[in-house]
């Protein structure tokens, strides 16, 4: 009887969660978004911080385009070339769920759409590329059948663009083109982009890429600076707790933006 009740509860939760979805977030970029926390010697050790525990109010869109309860590692079936671990996504979603009782975007279920792939440069995300098309396809699928509204795209990428100076110099223009193209193709002209400014890089032109990220003045683009975050021994990937803290900071940036929009609308 207990097992049958549990099965029924899971089915009902998944059905209601999809139909009652409120906020959808796209997670895109490269390895620090996909997550390398708790990956040691190429293996994920399975230790999940409290801030990243599963929550029935948080779903993820799998590689097979099925909604399921979100669990770490979020990108395991997306960023398949490397071992994935803890990233900022679930810490972000749990913080949004925890905080939205204050009246910002309350109700419904949070849906996460993992799209990040490690080692990718910004020009690999350009309009018409495989990564771009997959992101657009997954994002559009997430909104099918009244599945909810995409509230923001969380973007953490650029480490691979620090190797060649020409890539670092071109980053600003390439990122702006990506933002305008993705907003247009998703038919979301006011789509919020929350971009992470680099904490590390694969090459020596980190500051050039960071300057482009911090200097982005496009409307609806917000930046969260990861500089100073603790890194793993490779001096490239964030530690588990750095990923958790970043996720929480991304959530606060999103909630502050929504609160501002809500208050602005009321004043008008």
TrEMBL record:
Lineage top rank: taxon: Eukaryota
Domain annotation Sialate O-acetylesterase: ranges: 23-255
Hydrolase listed as a keyword: yes
Gene3D superfamilies (UniProt xref): SGNH hydrolase
GO molecular function, one term: hydrolase activity
Name by which UniProt lists this protein: Sialate O-acetylesterase domain-containing protein
Flavoprotein in keyword set: no
Signal peptide location: 1-20
InterPro entries (UniProt xref): Carb_Esterase_6, SASA, SGNH_hydro_sf
Keyword tags: Hydrolase, Signal
């Amino acid at each position: 009887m207990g097992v049958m009740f549990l099965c029924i509860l899971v089915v009902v939760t998944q059905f209601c969660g999809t139909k009652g979805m409120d906020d959808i977030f796209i997670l895109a970029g490269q390895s620090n978004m996909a997550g390398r926390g708790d990956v040691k010697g190429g293996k994920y050790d399975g230790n999940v911080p409290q801030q990243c525990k599963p929550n029935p109010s948080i779903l993820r869109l799998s590689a097979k385009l099925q909604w399921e309860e979100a669990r770490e590692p979020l990108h395991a079936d997306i960023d398949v070339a490397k071992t994935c671990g803890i990233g900022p996504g679930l810490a972000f979603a749990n913080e949004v769920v925890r905080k939205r009782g204050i009246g910002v975007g309350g109700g419904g279920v949070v849906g996460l759409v993992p799209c990040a792939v490690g080692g990718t440069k910004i020009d690999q995300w350009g309009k018409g590329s495989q990564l771009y098309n997959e992101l657009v396809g997954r994002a559009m699928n997430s909104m099918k059948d009244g599945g909810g509204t995409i509230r923001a795209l969380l973007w953490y990428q650029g480490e691979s663009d620090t190797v060649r100076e020409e890539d670092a110099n071109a980053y600003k223009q390439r990122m702006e083109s990506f933002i305008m193209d993705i907003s247009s193709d998703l038919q979301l002209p006011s789509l919020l982009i929350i971009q992470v400014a680099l904490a590390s890089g694969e090459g020596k032109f980190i500051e050039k890429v960071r300057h482009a990220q911090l200097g982005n003045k496009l409307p609806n683009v917000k930046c969260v600076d990861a500089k100073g975050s603790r890194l793993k021994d490779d001096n490239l990937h964030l530690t588990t707790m750095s990923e958790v803290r970043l996720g929480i900071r991304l959530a606060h940036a999103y909630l502050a933006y929504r609160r501002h929009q809500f208050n602005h609308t009321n004043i008008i």
